[in-house]
Amino acid sequence: QEKSCHLSAALLGEDSEISQDQLYELLKYAALGKCHKAAQPSWCRIYHQSHLAGVVVVVLHEMSQLHFYRFYLQFKHLRKVFQHRFTLAPSANFPVSLYGEGTNLKPQNTSQGLTSSSGECITKSSDLQCDPIIQRYGDKKQGLTSYTLTLEEQKKNDYPIEGSPGCKGYISTECDQQRTDSSPLFGLDCEMCLTAKGNEVTRVSLVDARGQCLLNELVKPESTVVNYRTRFSGITRKMLLPVKTRLSDIQTKLKKMLPHDAVLVGHSLNSDLQALEMIHPSVIDTSLLFARSEGRRFKLKFLAKAVLGKEIQCEQKLGHDPTEDARAALELAQFFIEQGPTKVAELNLEMLLTAEKLAEVSQNKAVLQPQGCGFQEQLNEPPPLSKPCFLDCLQVTGQKPLLLGRQGLDSSGLCQSNPSTSNKQILQRALEDVPLSKFSIIQFSLGPEYLASHLHAGLYEKVRSKLTDMLTIYAGPFEENFCMKSVKKEFGRCGPIQSLTVVTETFQPYVCIQYEVLEAAQLAVESLNGAEVAGSCIKVQRPVTAGMLDCNVLIKELELDVENEGVIYVAGLKKSLTETDLQEEFSHLKDLETLFLPKDLQSGKHRNCCFLKFQKTQSAVDALEALNGWTMKGSELRSRNALAPGHLWRWIWQMNHSNGKQGKHIFYEKMEQLSDSEQDLKKKVKKLDHHIKKLYRSLQNNTLCVVLFPGVNSTHGSQSGLGLMGIKDDEGRSAC
Q1: Which region among 249-263, 522-536, 543-557, 646-660 has the lowest average model confidence (pLDDT)?
Q2: Which intervals hold domain RRM (predicted)?
Q3: Cα distances (Å, whole numbers) of residue 260 to 14, 180, 187, 333
Q4: Where are the domains of the chain?
Q5: What is residue 657's predicted lDDT score, i.e. its pLDDT?
Q6: Residue 265 burial by CB count (10 A; 0-12/13-18/19+): exposed, middle or buried?
Q7: CA–CA gap between residue 189 and residue 107 (Å, rounded)
Q8: Contact 330, 207 (CB under 8 A)
Q9: Beta strands 712-714 and 635-636: pairing type?
Q10: Three-state DSSP class for 140?
Q11: Can 6-99+389-450+677-728 and 142-339 be said to share one CATH topology?
Q12: Fold topology of 6-99+389-450+677-728
């Protein structure tokens, strides 16, 4: 059965602002996997990358986050399908930020995609036959059972074996079921200290096939410790003092945790099993898997860096992290199984190790130089290398990248511009060619008449004006000498207030309150309309303007936004509470995944509200019921479903504090022009959304799809971009 890929990303608050480098990091890993030193992106994780059917990037030329939220209701498909959304910093050279530069590819007609070029990215096949990995495993990809150690190999490498003289009293994991290529993998690593008895376990870590930590526990040795080996183990006497767990407890836990067909993975795993005094019949040892000549072995630290692109066992840390090591060994085994021996041999690990050692020698020489000797060398150093184009590597492996679009994709000489091509023609070509390509970039455009930079100022002002109206409520009427402090306190329980003013144009006083978050304004309308505040029964409403006539529709659609699934807003918090305090206070809530505590971007002070993201939608519903009216540290909480997706916090704050300064000198001149074309623009956007829907539906399952509004950099100001992403699943929706 085909493995399904999925994507995880905790994109809330400041974590949802993604740089161009981070976007490049994602696309490079999605395109190449762990080959060519492509590492898992730091801000999200792709599971089973090798099973991706392809990568499709849709670029909406010269459109920004502003366009998406101005025409939010028109982008019906985009907002309902993609589960992950992030703000994107605008780039001066967007194509380069996508796939790098310095490509050797030669441009061809867009309809043909791109031709292969000769390159030396990969070791020649004639050299591979001499590689120890190929000699041991052959050149064909095989299932995991082909890489487990035989009984003879276990004996030869000092693994604990049932009935062996040195294994008297050892405990069996009792995992005696026959292994298949779909048996589950578990990463295991232990840290040991030296005792009067010999090596004894002081810490044990076990991770599952997804890299999730199942066990990470300190263990008290039976004998007196002679040497804690802190430099390597990270264990100190102080750490072990309160520990009650003994080796027998860990043995029992491991027996319960491991299914009967479990395959254990580790680096020199024999040492770990000897220290655990446990016998397990099926193991993959990564120190032997990545075979070398003459019985030598690669260190785990080197393999993690060379194969996975990960730095582990860093010198800054005190000792090794067994969970990190267990996860690294597991991912190395998964890489080997998924990619096969040929791909691993092509990495040319021996050459990489030699290069690393030479670099270390060179660095040591530089350190030993007298002070001041290296100045001239620094002057003669070449400038730092530009970001390499990973499409080159795709070409060399025989995978043709596809680039289709009207303009803007040719800055690296990758394809020819064709300004006469319409979105409909581009879509038709994409439907034909995308299934034949592993990596595709498809660019759509609204057309030059809608993308003039001076129109962005008017568009910005319209969005800012509507947002201000949605953040604003009017409350009243109040008595002549009402207590403003009471009003501020009551409405402040709904969320952070930006401004509060008294309206004097009315017969009786009203109060105008502008909030910092949409949820606060909506909460005030829902909970305080008809309530008694400061001695008066008041009405709470939003401003009545032309732009607000569809406010209720917009609020409803925002609540249903896929990015808000499982996210709730909580207000009424004391500002003195820290994120750690809140984690503790909310620890009883089931399936709580992430907590985001917004802060003022100028002062850095926390606001009196937070957002909670849950793994399951039902858990969010239950939490909402539990928290409404709940008292925390003497303060009554109010909560509701989230309205603004996590990435919007900073953008709303900045727009809310701009006071319309951006492009205001152009706004009045161009607003009439914008209004005349806006109905046409809405139709264009709706059609564009339909094109993307049609393209998305044609994609194979397990295809990573990323839709990018690149943002705008112009003399009239810059606008942040927006990214939407997901992996298509069986139901045609993006898998989270």
Answers
A1: 646-660
A2: 471-545, 566-644
A3: 43, 12, 16, 20
A4: 6-99+389-450+677-728, 142-339, 565-641
A5: 63
A6: buried
A7: 49
A8: yes
A9: unpaired
A10: coil
A11: no
A12: Alkaline Phosphatase, subunit A (3.40.720)
pTM over cut 0.70:
no
How far is CA 476 from each of CA 218, 487, 496, 512, 527, rounded to the nearest angstrom? 61, 10, 20, 9, 14
Q: What is the CATH number of domain 142-339?
A: 3.30.420.10
Quote the pLDDT of residue 166: 85
DSSP 607-670: -SEEEEEESSHHHHHHHHHHHTT-EETTEE-EEEE--S-TTHHHHHHHHHTTTT-TTHHHHHHH
Determine the Cα–Cα distance for residues 54 and 683; give it in Å rounded to an integer. Answer: 31
Length of the chain: 736
One-letter-per-residue 3-state SS of 448-513: HHHCCHHHHHHHHHHHHHHHHHHHEEEEECCCCCCCHHHHHHHHHCCCCEEEEEEECCCCCCEEEE
Q: Give the confidence band of 418 by pLDDT, cuts at 50, 70, 90.
A: very low
Q: Which helix (H) or strand (E) holds 536?
A: strand 536-537
Among 470, 459, 460, smallest CA distance to 654 is for 460
Buried/exposed 45-61: b ≥16 CB within 10 Å, e otherwise: bbbbbbbbbbbbbbbbb
With a CB cutoff of 8 Å and minimum separation 6, the contacts of 32 are: 38, 390, 393, 394
Helix/strand/coil percentages in the chain, nearest 5: 40, 20, 40
Contact predicate 53/46, CB 8 Å: no
Are 613 and 567 a contacting pair, CB within 8 Å? yes
* Exposed/middle/buried for residue 710 (C-beta within 10 Å: 0-12, 13-18, 19+): buried
Q: What is the C-alpha to C-alpha distance for residues 60 and 71, in angstroms, rounded to an integer?
A: 14
Buried b (16+ CB within 10 A) or exposed e, 577-592: beeeebeebbeebeeb
Query: What's the pLDDT at 564?
Result: 87
Determine the angle formed by the axes of helices 423-433 and 664-698, rounding to 10 degrees. 30
Helix axes 648-656, 453-471, angle to 10 degrees: 90
**pLDDT number for residue 122:** 34
At residue 330, does pLDDT exceed 80?
A: yes
DSSP state letters, 548-595: GTTHHHHHHHHHH-GGGTTEEEEE---TT--HHHHHHHTTTSTTEEEE
Rounded CA separation 328/325 (Å):
5
Q: What is the DSSP string of 662-715?
A: TTHHHHHHHHHHHHHHHHHHHHHHHHHHHHHHHHHHHSPTTEEEEEEE--EEET
Q: Please state the rounded mean pLDDT for residues 106-112.
A: 36
Number of H helices, E strands in the chain: 27, 32
| Arithmetic mean of pLDDT over the chain | 81
Q: Domain 565-641: which topology?
A: Alpha-Beta Plaits (3.30.70)
Q: Look at residue 119 and tell me whether its pLDDT is greater than 90.
A: no
57's enclosing H/E stretch is strand 54-60
